[in-house]
Structures are given as structure tokens and as C-alpha cells.
Amino acid sequence: MLQTPTTADSPTTTSVCSRSPEALLSFTTTTATSLLPCSRQLIKHHRLPPLGQFIALVFGRCNLPASVCLVSLIYLHRLKLRLPRYARGDYDTPYRLFLAAILTASKFMSEGGTGLTSQMISQITDGLYTAKDVNLMERSFLGLMRYELWIDVDEVKLFLQENGSELEMELREVVMQDGVDWWKEL
Fold this sequence. Notes:
Layout: E1 2-3, E2 12-18, H1 21-33, H2 51-62, H3 66-82, H4 93-109, H5 118-124, H6 131-144, H7 153-167, E3 169-177, E4 180-185
């Protein structure tokens, strides 16, 4: 969950709500494929499924919270803005960037070390990428991101304002009153 300031009277937390896993999958696939021009020639990973199928497989096996998926999309959006115009990728670059983004978002948002690990990603992808490959993806991604991982609620609100209808996601504020959670759309 994304933290919002709390008051003494009623503490609040902001939560991300996803109404459609299919919309999230479609948006994530489109985002990953539009980051940079990539080779259409499959060389190394002859076992790679189509990107949408790959993302669906990872989402299905990871069971990631909507907030982690959203933060990974914001990271990919930031990355796209930072890449030079002449940047080009290999066939599997969208796969690698997607994995690095969800791994980074999961770790950043985890509490007590409950985020994904490189070994988990390797297992989730049925060994298409080794833990060593995933570690390299993560380090490269962090370098491209300049280690700027902080995302505040206002940035999330702006991203959802621009993309929320296509993503079918929204923010909800959870207000605790008398020990009961009350949802309020933001």
C-alpha cells in the first residue's frame, strides 16, 4: 500500500484497486513493447512465448498486488522518458525490462523482505533467465533509472489520471474509524 499522511483522528492509507486483470495485462504488454525499437529476430531465446503470454504467465505465478504492478508501470514510463532516441534493443529487451521493473517494484514496496528475488524470477520463467541473468537485468535497470525509485501518491494520482481508464485502476483511501476500514475513492 502507498502511505498517505495520517491525522490523529483517523489514520488513512491509500490503496490501489484494479478492476480488470485483462486491462492491466494489455497495458503492461503495450508499455513494454513501446519502450524502444527492438530487433525482430529471435536469436538466443528460442523458447520465448509472445510477450503478452509471457507477462500473463509471470503475473499469474507471482500474484503481485496491484500496487506493485502500478509502480512497475511508472518505472517503465520513467525509463522510456530517459532513454536516448537512438536506443535500440534485442528481441528479448521488452521481456528483460518488464522483469527488472516488477522485481525492482516488488523489492521497493516490500515490507520485511517479502519482495520477489532473482531466484524466484528465474523459477517463474521456467529457467528462461538464470538468477545471474536477472541480477544483471536488475542492476542495469537501476542504473538506467539512476536509482530514483521513490514514487509519491501525487505521482501515482497523475499516472492514473492519464492512464487509469485504460488500466481500469483507481486509488482508494482507507480511513480507519473505530477499528473499521472505510473505503473512499480519491
